[in-house]
Amino acid sequence: MVFGKSEEKQEMIYLDNAATTKMSEEVFTAMKPFFCEQYANPSAIYSFAGGSAKAVDEARKKTAALIGARLEEIYFTAGGSESDNWAIRAVAELYNTKGKHIITSTIEHHAVLHTCQYLEKHGFEVTYVNVDAHGKIKLDELESAIRPDTILITIMAANNEIGTVQPLQEIGAIAKKNKILFHTDAVQAYGHIPLNVEEMGIDLLSASGHKFHGPKGIGFLYIRRGVRIGSLIHGGAQERSRRAGTLNTPGIVGIGVAADLASKSLDERMKKEIELRDYLINRVLKEVPYCRLNGHPIDRLPNNANFCFEFIEGESLLILLDQQGICASSGSACTSGSLDPSHVLLAIGLPHEIAHGSLRLTLSEETTKEEIDFTVEEIKKIVERLRAMSPLYEDSRKGFV
């Protein structure tokens, strides 16, 4: 197989699976009948709708099983950002008589951060707990931030940029001890690492289908039975009157199949991805000078490798990688186009000039060692080329920096 756009036969290398994954053929095949054949509204009472309703129930069961939840605790949404917004704003709305204080972290996805900032403009107080140099939440700081009027702790399961996995069980125990609701944005973690809402004390959990080979435009919010939470959309009885609107049956079927496939392959897939991820990390750190790994060296997503290269701009690196047929990113896809350095990298203590030189490579079970080898060789050449144009790099070599 030949890689690179400069070759006669071009093969793309896709290493941006944290942004989105390719929908699996099994998922696509399962969804197809619900567009043109079994197209009935699952909320209708006639027998033709029975197939759609049954398919929705089956998908609800499969998505719930992957996190040890009950099927009636799964509420389908349009994706992770919607689920995050719903969880946080609904808790704020219903529990504001108890208090108006929310705790989150400095490295959350913007779907959480911007929702918290919105609430701050409407009378709520938010504490942004710091993380250590690897992106791990500081549990002592989290616990000390709790106040009598704290109503919600919202901490992501795993970071979308640097891949660090948070100690959810410990966070859940702290929340439970203090009788505070615990929400986790599990968009990057669901289907990639083991999660269990009972063992981890999670009350609300957000997920999105396109992050684990399901369709785009579909996600869910897990709401623990007994947790009081308001409706997201009014106007119908769908999703037990909490999210009105005709159900996206094909998307729901798709996320259910994707969850089932993820569950069946989880252990084997994690083992393969970790082995390939560590091979990638070790090669880059060994063969590219002035380079560092971002995120926890062990407690990280199986498919995530995030680096910073000194004396270069990450955007230039991405453009030149793309010219060689390699799809990568410098961080969250939701902030692409921004000239500001990643808030996550700044939160773990990196200075602006180093944070600007970041590269995120996220693998899938389809990624091969040959693709990794080609990518590493291209990174080495591109970084050397970019540094040759950097006066700061020349000064560092002469001992002036």
Task: Describe the structure in brief.
This protein has helices at residues 25-31, 33-36, 50-65, 80-95, 110-120, 139-145, 168-177, 238-241, 249-287, 314-323, 343-347, 352-355, 369-388, 391-397, and strands spanning 13-14, 74-77, 101-105, 125-129, 150-154, 181-185, 204-208, 219-223, 291-294, 304-309, 326-327, 358-362. It has 401 residues and is α/β, with parallel strands linked by helices. The model has no long low-confidence stretch (mean pLDDT 94).
Protein described:
Helix 1 (25-31) packs antiparallel against helix 9 and helix 4 runs parallel beside helix 5. The protein has 401 residues and is α/β, with parallel strands linked by helices. 40% of the residues lie in helices and 13% in strands. Strands 2-8-7-6-5-3-4 form a seven-stranded mixed β-sheet, with helices on both faces. Strands 9-10-12 form a three-stranded antiparallel β-sheet. Strands 1-11 form a two-stranded parallel ribbon. Strand 5, helix 7 and strand 6 (181-185) form a beta-alpha-beta unit.
